[in-house]
Structure formats: C-alpha cells, structure tokens
C-alpha cells in the first residue's frame, strides 16, 4: 500500500460535504486534528442492494437494523480508514468553530 495523496480540510461552521467516494483509492482515511463537538460526523451509506428493495427501510430511519446511513462520531486524534469506493459524506458543522482534518488516499 502506498500513499497516493493527502489534503487538509478546514471546515467552517455551517458547511457540509455531499456524498462522494475516492475511487480508485484502495483505502482512504481521515485524521481529526481539531474536531469540536457537533462539528459534523463522517457518514457512510450502506450499499447493500437488499436495502433498495426492503419495505422496512425508510429514508432517514435511525433503526440500527434498517438504517442506510451510519455516523461515525470522532474526537481529536481519531483516525478512520475505509474502502475508497465506499460512498460517504460529512454532516453539517453545527458548532461555532472550524473543524480541521487531514484526509488521504492509498493505492
Ligand atoms: Fe471523502
């Protein structure tokens, strides 16, 4: 595995990041340098095709069995690593401070 690139996010209050992926990265990750409370979690979407046909799955549900989005709360110093193809977004920064993180891709 080799580092393909990295970048710094400085996310001001009120900002969100829409769903995206990091193809063709093998694994991608984020390291939280400064993650104020309520400044937006990383959110992954369940890409299991079964959910597209399940009558039990309702948009916006938080039921642990049927929900389609998974939030990963993090604190300063947390690193999350995930498959580069996995769609994700970052929830709105609802704090009054900027969130600072470093993201990276690998090949
Ligand atoms: Fe990303």
Concise synopsis of the structure shown:
Helix content is 4%, strand content 42%.
Q: What would your notes on this structure say?
A:
The protein is mainly beta. The chain has one domain (3-106): q2cbj1_9rhob like domain (Jelly Rolls, Sandwich), CATH 2.60.120. The protein is built from 1 helix and 8 strands; from the N terminus they run ββββαββββ. The strands form 2 sheets. It has a 4-stranded antiparallel sheet, with no helix packed on it. The radius of gyration is 15 Å and the shape is globular. The relative contact order is 0.48. The model has no long low-confidence stretch (mean pLDDT 89).
Q: What number of domains?
A: 1
Rg calculated over all Cα atoms: 15 Å
CATH superfamily assignment? Answer: q2cbj1_9rhob like domain
Helix content, binned percent? under 10%
- Summed up, the helix count is 1
| CATH-defined architecture | Sandwich
**Total strand count, please?**
8
- Average pLDDT works out at 89
Would you tell me which CATH topology applies?
Jelly Rolls
Query: What is the level 1 CATH name?
Result: Mainly Beta
Ranges where pLDDT stays below 50 over 5 or more residues in a row are none
In this entry the ligands are: fe (ii) ion
User: Sheet with the most strands?
Assistant: 4 strands, antiparallel
Q: Write the element-wise H/E pattern from the N-terminal end onward.
A: EEEEHEEEE
Task: Quickly give the structural class.
Answer: mainly beta
Q: Which strand order does the major sheet show?
A: 1-8-3-6
User: For the terminal residues, how far apart are their CA atoms?
Assistant: 6 Å
Shape: globular
**In percent terms, what proportion of residues is strand?**
35-45%
